[in-house]
Structures are given as structure tokens and as C-alpha cells.
Amino acid sequence: MHSDNSIRLFWLLLCVFCALTDTTNKVLGPEVTIRELEITSKVAFRYADVVVRSLAVNTRSHAQEVTFEVKLPKEAFITSFLLVTNNKTIKAVIKEKDEAEKEYRKAKTAHVIAGHVTQQEVRDDVDIDVFEVVVNVAANADVEFRLEYEELLQRHAGKYSQKLFIESDHIIEKLQVRCEFKDKQKFKMLTYKTPFYTERVHVVYNKGMVTKNGYYFNEIEWKPSKREQENADKKLESPFEIEYELEVNKRGGMVLINEKGEFTHMFSAPCDESKIMMKQIVFVIDISGSMDGNPIEQVKEAMTSILSRLRTHDFFNIILFDDNTIMWKSTFQQATSLNVKAAKYFVEKSVKADGSTNINEALLLAVDMFDKELPADMNGNLGKIIVFLTDGSPTYGETDTTAIRRNIRARNYLNGQICCKSSINTIAFGRYADMDFLRVIAYEHEGILTIIKETESNVAGELVKIYKDIENPFYKNLVFTYQVNDQLLPRNNITQTQFLQYDCGNEIVVSGWTYPKVPIRPTVKADGAQNEIAFKSVPTVLILHDDSVILSRLVAYKRVKLLLKEAETTLYPARRETANKMALELSLKFGFVTPMTSLVVTDYSKSSTKDYIIARNGDSFKSAISNPVHILLCLYLYFLV
Predict the structure, then answer these.
(1) 231 and 187 in contact (C-beta within 8 Å)?
(2) pLDDT in tens, 341-360
(3) pTM, rounded to two decimals
(4) Which class is 277-471 in CATH?
(5) One CATH from 2.60.40, 3.90.1150, 2.40.50, 2.40.128 for 254-273+475-586
């Protein structure tokens, strides 16, 4: 998300100016408080719809500024925003960026209340999106904010997790978090952790209540009193965190389909230690000068823990790089206790920060390792994984990131066309890592980008957590097909049909669309540790009524994500243009704020033309009349593009 070229970060400024008084831009005082904060999350088949509502009150006799800030998961799409103040409701509308600009100019010419979205490059190391609104609240008045967003919860190491961000430096009179979870699979476990405690609170270890529609249902409600907030050891600084597990069947997951023919396949498999593949894994570690000090020591600590987690039937190697590359061994080594001990010694003695950053040479060397002849005792299918960590961008050797991408694809793609010999999982360490480049490398090679903040207190723990997510390769070369009316559904109707590798703690989510009210027959074929596996009786569940709408939005969400990914990774301009156009159409249809769309606010009410003067950010403006209400909305959205 960030880089030496700065992070691709969408700073969306929505500025709404009402007629100003002399009290604008005052410092927020204790007389302006957040009286109410309510977060309502409804999760249906892993797809979350979250509404954040906040009520701020100004008890002073003059206007005061109040800030409304919501942190969002990086994978979320905002779907709506509105505020209510002075008996007026102002609602944002999602439009294509050029249309938003035209709407803004039209409103500005008419002297009505208006605001629109712009974007800027801003460097930051936070792996979240931030929505912030600053409002000057009239004397003895209040303002209500409502923000809604949607996201698909991810499964990592067997658990789904959700973070709801709550931050306040004072007691909130009415604070409430309410979460509902329903699914067609039974719950094994559900826990939550409040901002006040470091330990998780046990909730349930049963299947969940069964609803009349055949869902397994669980809920959480947290309403800390003022006294509880006063007596808490920690303030409202950490997120409200939820984790849950679902029972996993052995039949290839589950397909959910509605009467319109839209479907989503949630594929997972239970972990069986005897069926986990042996793996070849290469750790590629940046030891350039910028890693000096605490970062390099944290990497050493993490590698010691990760090497200890290797199974004895795994094979591994380590590549260190600055201007040059240093290989621990010329070939893969089995993870015997003797070899693991030797590797730890190598890390301790050789991991020293110095020099520049030769990313191209290091990654090509790692990819080429998988072309070498396998040891005689490496039987069966193998998981093939590269873990690449850097805190910067290429500064030595080949420094053009597009050229590096082409070089790696030429080596790692089969015949230069089909992904891949090995997955490449990238780790961006700190704010100066080239997030855009690392994200695309991961996308292009069936890997995952993980961002570790400079301020992270437990970097070693985070690195070990990343490794846990990829340490159990279970299937390779997965192919998903769907048969309708005795014919295979075209690939263009499916978000993705082939996957290089599956780790048994994770989940593959495939969405698509077919004819209305027609049965679908899914099949998944894959290579297991010793033989080919075929799932031909995947359970299919019909989703009806309001839940059908949720499923439609989930399918659209997956399609937009895939199109944005395709637009970013393709090397062909025509394909990029097509993907962006399709992503825009879906974003507008379903109301998603994405890199292709903008939020715009206009108010053509009768009073607005005489009560409000509009000014864009950076323009000069003056108050036309002494109106007590001044609203300045500053909306910051940080997107992983």
C-alpha cells in the first residue's frame, strides 16, 4: 500500500461549507462531546454490513468543532454516508469521478451546499482506511453521523476475524456494539475482545441457535456503562475484535445460490496433518542499510521462530540481499534439526544491514531454485512458496518495477504464460516499502501482501503469524467448474476458476452467475499430497428473500475486487481499460466507493441558495450572512488499489 513512490492512497476530500460565523476553527473543548456511539454489524455467510452512528453535542453558547473518525478494514467498501444537523439531512451520493466533479461545479455556480471527492498521494504506513469528518457544530446543537460499509471476512489459520474500531479519549454516555452472525455452517467457537481488555472473552462453543430459515445464529452485545468506562485499565484505543470458527465439511465447502442465479462457493477443507504436503520454501530477506537497528533484530527473532516451525519433511533455503545476494545453500535443504540449527546460526551471523536494494536479482534467484533437480526422497506433490520481505524499493541493479515484474513473470510463469512455479508472498516492512509494487508482485504470483507497520510492537510475532497462514499446503492446481443444464458454465461467468495452492487453514471464495432458477452442479479437482482429489457432491443451498439481496451484493463485491486486481496487474492497456470500465459499472450499480467512484454531496433545498456559500478546498471564501452552522467535511479514504 505504500512505497518510495508513496502509497496508493486515496485522500478523498468532501468539503461542505455553510455560511460562516466568526467562531469557526475553534479548538475542540470539553463542552463538545460524543454523547452516543453505536456500531451495528450484521454478518451473513461471512459478508459484513456495518453501520457506525455517532451523535456529537455542543453545550456551549458558541460554535465548536467536532471530529467524527471511523477506521475501516482495508478490504471494505463504503456504501453510504449521511449527517443530520440543524434539522437538515445531508446524504452523499456515489458517482463516477468526472460526474462528481461536474455536479460539484454546477452546485457551486448555483451557490448551494455541495462537496465532492478528490484524491491525493499521501504516504502512510497504516494498513487500514480512515474516514474523517470535521464539523463545526452550532451553539447548543448536535450533529449525527452515519457511515455504512461492507466487507467479506477472511479466514486465516482456521478463524474468521472482524475488527470494529472504537477510539475516544473520554467517557461516552451511550456506547454500544451489537454484532449478529448467521451462517449455513455450524459455529465451533466465537470469542470477542473489547478495547478494555487484552484477553478474549469466551462466548460460545456450540453450533449457535438455529433460526426458522435454517441458519445458525449467534450475537454479541457490548454496552459498557459510564462506570465501567471510568474503571477500565485501558481507554478506548484498541479495536473491538471478534473471532469465530465454523465447522468445515469434507465435501468441498458449500455453494450458496439465489433465484437470480447468482452464487458464491465457499471452499475449505479440514486440516489433516497426515495429508499436508511437504513443501519447498525460500525466505528472501532484505538486509540493506535501511533495515539497520531494530528492524533487523526483529527479523532475526522472527526467523528463529519460523525455522523452528518447519516440519522435518520440509525443504528450505534462505537468501539475503542488499547490493548483492547471499544464499545460505545452493540447493534446498531438508529441515532436519541439524540443518535448522545451522540455518539459525547463518541468520544470526549474516543478517547485518548494509548497502542498497537489489530486488530483481534476489527474486530471480529465488524463483530459479525451483528449477533445480529435486532430492530423491521428495516424493509426491510439493507446496512451493517464496516469502519476500523488504522495507524499501529497488535501488540497485534493475530499478524499473515494470521491468522487474516482466523478468519475474518470465521465470516463474510456465512457458511465460501460466502462473506459477511458486507462489510469492510479499511482506512490506514500514512506510517506505513500495506497497504498490509488492502488492502487484503478490497478485501476479498467487501470493498475499502483508503490511507491517513501523510502530508495530511485536514485529516478530506478526511475521510468525504470516508464516502460519502459508505453512500447511494442502492442495495444488485447483480447478473449479460449474455445470448447468449439462453444460459447463463459461469461465467469463466466474470470478476465478484456477488456483495454484490452497492452505487448509484458509478459504477460497469463488463467485459467479448463471440462469435464474436453474440448479447448478459444482466440481472441484485438485492435486493432493499423493494423488488427485475430486469433489463432486459439494452441498448447494438456495438463498431466499432478503438474504438473496445480500448474496447479490457479495457476488458484486467479489467481481469488483477481481476487476480492480486485473486492471492493476495486466501489462496490456486495452485489458486494463476494459476491467476499469466493468468495475466502474458495478461500483455505481451497487453503490461501492472504489478507486473508480467518488462521493458527492449537493443540497438544492430552497434555503440553501441563500444560506450557504460554497468553496472548494484551497479557495478563498467569506461568510455571506451570519448563519450559525458551518460544516467542513474532510473525508480521507486510503485504498489498496
Answers:
(1) no
(2) 999 999 999 999 888 999 99
(3) 0.86
(4) alpha beta
(5) 2.60.40
